[in-house]
Each structure stands twice: as structure tokens, then as C-alpha cells.
Amino acid sequence: MKTITHLILRRDRLLIAAWIAVAVGVPAFNAYSLAALLPTQAARIAFIDAADANPITLALLGPVHGTSIEAVVAWRSSVQSLLIGGLAGLLFAIRHTRAEEDTGRRELVAAGAVGRYAAITAVVAVIAAVNLAVAGLQAAVLGLAFGYPADGSLLFGLVGGAGSTAFAACGLLAAQLCQSAPLARAGGVGVLVAGLVPGVILPEEAVAYLPAGWPRVARAYGDERWWVLLVPLAVALVLTLVAYVVCGRRELGAGLLPERPAPARPAPRGAAGLAWRLYGGQTASWTAALGMASVGVGWVSASFEVGTLTGETLLEIFTYVFCMVVACLAVTGALRPLGEESRGRASAVLATATGRTRWLGGHLVLGLAAPAAMLLVVGVGTGAGHALGTGLSDTVLTQVGTALVFVPAAWAVAGVAIASYGLRPRAAVPLAWAVLVGSAVCVAMWEAGTIGTTAFLLTPFGYGHPSLSPGFLAPAGYALAAAGLVTTGSAAFARRDLLA
């Protein structure tokens, strides 16, 4: 285990350093910017009143527990810390478990004097150490650099670290259950997004058992509740133990359940047919899941009203969340050619009469058509569900338009993945997900007032925000940017060598 741990640290030392820097830098930036934005008690009270009166902000982040600058910074930074640490840990766990098996490197390591659980134990140790380091550095920066109380700073850091570890354990389990790294990433990111969607229907205390509620119930810099730490730690422990059990029961390279033999079918026609044969089932499953969830949200929103949160606002919030989920799936789909190349399948196909442009184009057809189809299903589902509850059929067209406006943004984040795959394939995964995480962080920063609307509109998640009216300029600009990125990636792939 010690050798594998050293290998992981050496291989991803820059990635880990960036992970720690971003996770520590975000609350520090919030502390600096909010102190300048809200220098007086009166300014903070006005800001808190405005935040509590905004149903979208209240549903996503909960109420501010206190009027001190420390409480405001903790309120603003908590979900950001969970998102950054959770996504980084989740992808890191899959990268060094399932992805290693997909490329065949895990089999080479297992041929040596290495135990069955050595790799998974090394990953757990590294992730736990990184999250502990992030928690300690966050507490130190907030406590020493900004003079915040030590107890509140430590609780803030530990809640974020424990929650991030729970999401990493989820990624670890997904890596053991799923048959491939892309499927594990899609499932893990889906759980992450679902966990961070606040329990707007549940009472405040019940939200403590949901990931989005851990920091708000802990109340750092208020009446600190240290017992909340036990919830994410218990979740992380249970998921990790289950991952160990599954790891011991499955064959190397397989999931928990063996794949069922596929029925005899004609050979796929063309590169696009091959891409659909490989990943069409996953795409259809995610589309169906989004459709069912969309109908449910639309139905609930028809009769929903809690305080200032109306059904229309709830529908806007969840439509935006669904759009962000589709963006995550768009990145996963855009990275599928990298998985095919890393596993040696691309070289086998390209050894035939199929050219590089044709092969990559087949994957791009599916990768770019899938987000558009998913967003169409989200619009129809939310609109139809709402129409069934209210009897107002015009909601369907409105929701379809709202969802389809987000298509260029989904194509843009997919375009970043495609361009980086063509130019620097080994950096494609961290770069694509870094752009996605950075865009999500900018959403929270704009809602806090730390960045302006113009800067926010330059991010993929900007113009689709329910509080903004995008017009046609921003979607058109992102559509052109996506086209440029896809063209760049395709041209670079046609010239470079395949991965060994």
C-alpha cells in the first residue's frame, strides 16, 4: 500500500496541490470580498434580509444564522466547499480505481506482491489526508489571516472535509459497482448533484441528514453543533465498507454483477452506429431518468408554496439544476473517445478503413446530440408535469424554451473537453471538470455579489440563471465558442499520436 500511495502522490502532485489551493482559496476570497462589500453591521443586516427574501438563494443555501461577517462568510462558502471537495474527491477516487482497471494498469500492479485491497486503501488514505489538510488550512486561514474565532473556523473546515470525504466514498463505491469509469463518473456526479439539492420541502432540522444541510445545521460561528460531523463521517464509513465488500466479491475489471450477454444484432453501421451501440443505452437511461424526475418536479410545483417559495420559483430552481446536471453529462459524453483510446479500442477501429475524423465524428454526434435531447426532455417533462397539476398547457412551451436555451452552454463545456482531448489528452479530464466546477462556483459568487453580472455571463452557467434574461447574444456566442472548440479538438486529434 505504501508504494501505491507514493505512486498516487507523485503522479497527481500538481492535481492535489490545485485541489487544495482552490478549496482553501474560495472561502478566503469570500472572506476578503464580503468584508469589503459589507463593512458595517447595518450593511450585513440589509444583505441578510435581501438573501432571506430571495426564494432561490434561501432554497439553495438556507437562512443566515447570525449577523456577524463570519456567519455570512460561512453561509456563502459552505456549499461551495462541499461542491469543490466532493467533486474533486469523487473523481479522484474513480481515477485511481475504476479508470486504472479500464486502462489495464491495475492488472499490471496486481501481478506483483500487492494485496487485493491495497489500491483502494491507498486511495482512501490519500483522500482522507487531503480533506484533513484542506480543513486544517481553511481553519488556519480564516482564524489567523482574518481573525475569525478558532472554534467556528475549525467546525467550518471539518464539516466541509467530512462532507467531501462522504462524496469521495460514494465515488469509491461507484467505481466498484460500475463497469466503466465514464459510467461511474456519471453516477457519482448524479449523486453529488442530488445530494446538494436542498430539501426545500423538509423542515430545517431534517435537512441535517442531507449533504446540503450539513453546514447549515452545523451553524459555524453561531451556536456550533459539533454532532453534525457524525452524520457525514458515518455516511463515509458505511460507503467505504460497502466498497471494500464489493471489491472483495468481484473480478478485476468487472462490476458487482456480471454483464448479461448481448443479443445477436447486426453490425453497427458507421462510426456513429458504433458509438450508439457502446453508449446508447447509458444515454437513453439518463434521458429517461431526467424525464421522470422532471415530470415529478413539475407536478409538485403546481401546488407547492412554502413561505416565500412559490411553485413557479421551485420550477425555475429545479429546471436550472437539471440543466447543470445535463452539463455534467455532456462532459462525460465528450470524454468517451478518451476512454476508448485509453483502453486500446480506438487503435483497433482505426486500423480498419475507418479514418480518425470519421471515428471521432461518430462519438461527437452522440456526445452533442445527447445534451440537446436531454434538455428537450427536461423542458417537456417539467412543463407537462406542471400542466397536469394546473391545467395550463402553455407552460410546456415556456419550459421547453427555457431548457433549450441552455443547449449552447452544455455544448460549450463539452467543447472544452473535446478540445483538450485533441490537444492534451492526459489533461482532458481534470481540465474539463475544472471548467465545470469553476462555472458552478461562479454561480454562488454572483449570487453573493462578489462578481458582476457581466463577468457571470462569461461563464457557461451565467445566462441560463433563472434571475437573468439572456436574450440571444449569450447563447449565440456560446454556440460559436462550442463550434470553435470542437473544430480545434478534431483537427488536433487528426494530427497527434494515439496514447500508448
Relevant terms:
single chain; 500 residues; mainly alpha; 22 helices; ABC transporter membrane-spanning protein; membrane; transmembrane; transmembrane helix
Task: Summarize this entry quickly.
This protein is 74% helix and 1% strand. By secondary structure, the chain is mostly helical.
- For the termini, the CA-CA separation is 26 Å
The proportion of residues forming helix, as a percent range, comes to over 70%
The ordered string of helix (H) and strand (E) elements is HHHHHHHHHHHHHEEHHHHHHHHH
Number of strands: 2
Give the biggest sheet: 2 strands, antiparallel
Strand content: under 5%
* Sheet/helix structural class: mainly alpha
H/I helix tally: 22
Mean pLDDT: 84
Strand order of the largest sheet: 1-2
What is the CA-atom radius of gyration, in angstroms?
23 Å
Unreliable stretches: none
What does the overall shape look like? globular
